[in-house]
Structures are given as C-alpha cells and as structure tokens.
C-alpha cells in the first residue's frame, strides 16, 4: 500500500502586503537620511519590499517518501545544500551550506526533499541554532528514521559587515538525534562525511 505524499506549505496567514511594505521601506530609508529623489533610488523601496517578501516565502512541496524495501540501514547524507536566510535580530542575510543525513527506518526520502526542507525553514527571520534544530526535529517526526544529523555552516553578515566586522568568520551548528547522537561510531561517521571534525 503506497503512502500519499505529505504536502508541505508555509504557515497559514495573510500574504505580504507589498504596498505597505514599500511605504515602510521608503520611510525607513528616508529616516536613515537616504534621499529617494534620484532615478536609481526611486524604485528602491519597492525592490526592497519584493526582495524581503521573496526571502520570507518558502515554496510548497510534496514530501515524497518510499518504502525501504531493501532494508537499507546505512547513512544517507546530502552535503553542501545551499542555505540562505535572514538573521531575525538585524534582518541581514546569512548564507552557507547545510549537511543533512539520516539513518533510514521503514521509509526513505526523495533526495531533493532534504534541500526543500532546509529551504522551508530558512525562509523566515531565523537564528542558525533554531534552523538547525527545526530541520532535524521535522525530519525525525515525519520520517521516523533511526537517526538524524544536521550541520549548518554559515556566514552572518550581521557579524561580518557591521558590529565586530569579523570578515571571513563562519558559524557551525549541529543537531544529532537517535542513533547519530547515541552511538559514537555513527556520530563519528556522520561528522567525517560532512567534513566536520566531530
């Protein structure tokens, strides 16, 4: 018996009010002393509103899973999944990569869905620690694998472009669940395959 795919959509609620966002962006830029009189800046508030609306709107997708008929019981890992999100403290971007793996149980996941899940949780104001845990917890809940591991490496422009201005620095976060947390050899294999020294 086949299991229907789970349709994943972003949280219900009103869509973005681009007109209000554009007016607010114009007010913000003006309050910061930026004149919008020139031809090149006149359309900036609208572009800002559309850019943030795009950053905060994840695409819907089907969580496609398949029976693990062969009883595959080794690690499945997608490395280098692009991550782009926005720091919830300064609304400045952070970008990097995620490494997402799991030890299959009764079902396996369509591989592209690992990237879709990362995107789903990254498309909102975030902190990297929460993003890492949300991806791992959601996979654990939906897939019921024997273990889940998520590592995110990202550069935060709120650290590199302002404040401490630590150019070139990156932040690494990880969440391990199930066997990947409890079994030292499985944990070591996961970190070795991600390129992280565990």
Automatic annotation (TrEMBL):
<keyword id="KW-0554">One-carbon metabolism</keyword>
<dbReference type="GO" id="GO:0005525">
    <property type="term" value="F:GTP binding"/>
</dbReference>
<feature type="binding site">
    <location>
        <position position="158"/>
    </location>
    <ligand>
        <name>Zn(2+)</name>
    </ligand>
</feature>
<dbReference type="GO" id="GO:0006729">
    <property type="term" value="P:tetrahydrobiopterin biosynthetic process"/>
</dbReference>
<feature type="binding site">
    <location>
        <position position="90"/>
    </location>
    <ligand>
        <name>Zn(2+)</name>
    </ligand>
</feature>
<keyword id="KW-0342">GTP-binding</keyword>
<keyword id="KW-0479">Metal-binding</keyword>
<feature type="domain" description="GTP cyclohydrolase I">
    <location>
        <begin position="22"/>
        <end position="193"/>
    </location>
</feature>
<dbReference type="GO" id="GO:0006730">
    <property type="term" value="P:one-carbon metabolic process"/>
</dbReference>
<dbReference type="GO" id="GO:0003934">
    <property type="term" value="F:GTP cyclohydrolase I activity"/>
</dbReference>
<comment type="pathway">
    <text>Cofactor biosynthesis; 7,8-dihydroneopterin triphosphate biosynthesis; 7,8-dihydroneopterin triphosphate from GTP: step 1/1.</text>
</comment>
<dbReference type="GO" id="GO:0005737">
    <property type="term" value="C:cytoplasm"/>
</dbReference>
<dbReference type="GO" id="GO:0046654">
    <property type="term" value="P:tetrahydrofolate biosynthetic process"/>
</dbReference>
<keyword id="KW-0378">Hydrolase</keyword>
<dbReference type="InterPro" id="IPR020602">
    <property type="entry name" value="GTP_CycHdrlase_I_dom"/>
</dbReference>
<dbReference type="InterPro" id="IPR043134">
    <property type="entry name" value="GTP-CH-I_N"/>
</dbReference>
<dbReference type="InterPro" id="IPR043133">
    <property type="entry name" value="GTP-CH-I_C/QueF"/>
</dbReference>
<dbReference type="InterPro" id="IPR018234">
    <property type="entry name" value="GTP_CycHdrlase_I_CS"/>
</dbReference>
<keyword id="KW-0862">Zinc</keyword>
<dbReference type="GO" id="GO:0008270">
    <property type="term" value="F:zinc ion binding"/>
</dbReference>
<dbReference type="InterPro" id="IPR001474">
    <property type="entry name" value="GTP_CycHdrlase_I"/>
</dbReference>
<comment type="subunit">
    <text>Homopolymer.</text>
</comment>
<protein>
    <recommendedName>
        <fullName>GTP cyclohydrolase 1</fullName>
        <ecNumber>3.5.4.16</ecNumber>
    </recommendedName>
</protein>
<comment type="similarity">
    <text>Belongs to the GTP cyclohydrolase I family.</text>
</comment>
<dbReference type="Pfam" id="PF01227">
    <property type="entry name" value="GTP_cyclohydroI"/>
</dbReference>
<keyword id="KW-0547">Nucleotide-binding</keyword>
<feature type="binding site">
    <location>
        <position position="87"/>
    </location>
    <ligand>
        <name>Zn(2+)</name>
    </ligand>
</feature>
């Amino acid at each position: 018996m086949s299991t229907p795919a789970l349709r994943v959509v972003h949280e219900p609620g009103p869509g973005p009010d681009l007109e209000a966002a554009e007016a607010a962006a114009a007010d913000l830029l003006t309050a910061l002393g930026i004149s919008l009189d020139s031809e090149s800046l006149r359309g900036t508030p609208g572009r800002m509103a559309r850019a943030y609306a795009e950053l905060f709107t994840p695409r819907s997708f089907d969580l496609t899973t398949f029976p693990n008929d062969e009883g595959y019981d080794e690690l499945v890992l997608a490395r280098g999944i692009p991550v782009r999100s926005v720091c919830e403290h300064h609304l400045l971007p952070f970008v990097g990569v995620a490494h997402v793996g799991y030890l299959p149980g009764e079902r396996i996941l369509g591989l592209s869905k690992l990237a879709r899940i990362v995107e789903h949780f990254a498309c909102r104001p975030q902190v990297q620690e929460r993003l890492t845990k949300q991806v791992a917890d959601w996979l654990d809940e939906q897939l019921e694998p024997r273990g889940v591991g998520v590592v995110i490496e990202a550069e935060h422009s709120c650290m590199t472009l302002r404040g401490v201005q630590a150019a070139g620095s990156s932040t690494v976060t990880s969440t391990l669940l199930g066997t990947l947390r409890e079994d030292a050899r499985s944990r070591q294999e996961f970190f070795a395959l991600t390129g992280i020294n565990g």
